[in-house]
Amino acid sequence: MDSLTQAALGAAVGGAVLGRRLGRKAVLLGALLGTLPDLDVVLDYGDAVANVTEHRGVSHSLFVLTGLASLLALLFQRFAPIRNISLGHWWTFFVLCLVSHPLLDALTTYGTQLWWPLDAGPSAYPIVFIIDPLYTLALLGGLLAALVGPRVRRACVWGLALSCSYLLFAAGAKLTVEQRLAPALAARGLASAPRLVQPTPFNTLVWRATVIDGDDHYEALVGLFDGAAPPSLERYRRGAEWQPLALSHPRGERLAWFAGPFLRYEVRDHQGQETLIATDLRLGFPGFHPFAFTLATREGGTWQPVLVSEQLASPYQANGDRRQALARLASRLWGPEPPLCTSHFVAAEWIVEAPSHC
Q1: Where are the transmembrane segments (predicted)?
Q2: Same domain, yes or no, for 139 and 220?
Q3: Of 266, 297, 306, 308, which residue has the fewest beta carbons closer than 10 angstroms?
Q4: Residue 81: is the preceding peptide bond cis (ω within 30°)?
Q5: Pick from 101, 105, 78: which is nearest to 91 by CA?
Q6: What is the extent of the structural domain holding 8?
Q7: Radius of gyration of the chain from Cα atoms?
Q8: Number of structural domains, the chain?
Q9: The model's pTM
Q10: 68 and 213, same domain (yes or no)
Q11: Residue 177 lies in a domain
């Protein structure tokens, strides 16, 4: 999640745990702790693939953060003792303020490496977009009441209760969408295909489903207010013929570890060279995928891994721009019409099948 939301969550947790004993100081210290794990963004791991896949790693590990919380609790108990705050209170405060950050990140598309250093890959159960105004406002409302009112702990608890209720709503919405999507996938023989169901930007009313089937991937938008309208699937090429080449290089392996099967591969000219590029299909939607990475270049008839991977912008936006896409998405929130046809934003050579209404 964004830094503002993480600070608000840490502040609300801090106020709920120690607001009665520390007052508004618990809110301020909680906000600082809530943003602490994201300081890893200042680290440069050497290239674009490493920077994306290493983020939310060591600094988001439950093991590391629990150890850090224990150390901080001991230090505060030793050097900043407060009569009515025990070591157990300090430990609970620091643990909850710190680990709430990666636990919330785990509810977004990219998830987080909760079990680092175990090589388990990112843990993700996406029920909220990386920026969700309603979730953030629920927390900020409680914090505002805590900062101006006399009952710090009570206000923070109410903010957490409202924000957690929103997460429960989002989880229920995801289950509803998955149930509506199941018959459409079964009709295509995709019942057991790898899939990712996630909310579209800034809301939990319209959800995007991405399904992988060999050389193809399917996209569908399903809204809570779609009524009886069945989900329509758009089918795209995935460039799977380039996957073995990508996986033969360390950066390709790392991306596959990070994104699973949700990658598209292509070869295109980049700076005058034939370049193998992998695009993460999870974030954004067709035509607007922000994470595409160079992996290898063809030199003298053979493929060589790039020395430093670059992150590239998507070139397939000839039929529209982000503003137009977001406007269509906003009009899609309250029902199936007008449809948001993602194929409008994708180069024709990547489209295998678009619904008739597109």
Answers
A1: 58-76, 88-104, 124-148, 155-173
A2: no
A3: 308
A4: no
A5: 78
A6: 3-171
A7: 23
A8: 2
A9: 0.93
A10: no
A11: no
